[in-house]
Specification:
Layout: H1 8-17, E1 32-33, E2 42-47, E3 50-57, E4 62-65, E5 77-81, E6 91-100, E7 115-119, E8 146-151, E9 167-172, H2 176-183, E10 192-195, E11 212-215, E12 218-225, E13 236-240, H3 245-252
Antiparallel strand pairs: 1-9, 2-3, 2-5, 3-4, 4-7, 5-6, 6-7, 8-9, 8-11, 10-13, 11-12, 12-13
Length: 254
């Protein structure tokens, strides 16, 4: 998850004055140890061979992730698929393309925080490697609907190590109004979706960026940003995949 808009210092100060951050136990904040068979669409993007962000398989060549994860030289990135573990197992694929949304505009705003990755060689599907369906253009998720998030990100805000085993958690989708009240109307745009409990306690965190938010077996979100992780009153913010459905189709054929 990307650090909140202004800067790391602002976010760190905000976490000091907000409700305490719940501690995790070797997991995405508030989640549980999982297996890749539970989330076979989950991938790990690698920067110089180490876990950097998450992503979601949508067919044998293409992956959906977050644009803020891919701001360095193309040659430094690859992906690991089919592994429960962050740093071992599965197979590593070289990338043929990284397509960041052309209107992504960090640091002005985190709008349009979505990317497509294409691997050089097709991925072989198995119990550990499966694509996830995409929503229809502008399809909405009802407020209160539970979603599944997963990844190998930091297990505690500011002080936590990354998870070695893929972590899985369930969080409810919030209304746009609730999210805009938390962050300010100008920061929550139509291409974003928010999810989390009002009291906090469960959330994606740093290193989970680009990873999936899934509702009823459909990819509806890609982890994008938030104020800290799992803080009361601050839901996680995700790129709303349905908003970008036509863009994904135009660039990947999916």
């Amino acid at each position: 998850m990307n650090i909140f808009i202004f800067c790391l210092l602002f976010t760190s100060l905000a976490s000091v004055f907000a409700s305490p951050v719940p501690s995790g136990e070797n997991r995405i904040v508030g989640g549980r140890n999982g297996t890749i068979e539970e989330v076979p669409y989950q991938i790990s993007s690698l920067l110089d061979g180490s876990h950097n962000c998450g992503g979601s398989l949508i067919n044998e060549y293409w992956i959906v992730s977050a644009a803020h994860c891919f701001q360095r030289d193309f040659s430094r990135y690859s992906v690991r698929i089919g592994s429960t573990m962050r740093n071992a197992g599965g197979t590593i694929h070289e990338l043929d393309q990284i397509i960041n949304h052309p209107n992504y505009s960090i640091p002005v705003t985190y709008a349009n925080d979505i990317a497509l990755l294409k691997v050089k060689e097709p991925m072989d599907f198995s119990a550990q490697v499966q694509p996830i369906p995409l929503p229809e253009q502008y399809e909405m998720v009802p407020e209160g609907e539970f979603s599944t998030i997963s990844g190998w990100g930091t297990i505690r805000w500011l002080v936590g190590p990354a998870a070695d085993i893929v972590q899985i958690a369930e969080v409810p989708v919030t209304s746009r109004e609730y999210c805009a009240t938390a962050y300010g109307q100008s920061w929550i745009t139509d291409d974003m979706l928010c999810a989390g409990f009002p009291e906090g306690g469960i959330d994606a965190c740093q290193g989970d960026s680009g990873g999936p938010l899934v509702v009823d077996g459909v990819l509806h979100g890609a982890v994008s940003w938030g104020s800290g992780c799992a803080l009361a009153g601050y839901p996680g913010v995700y790129a709303r995949v349905s908003y970008f459905r036509d863009w994904i189709r135009e660039n990947s054929g999916m």
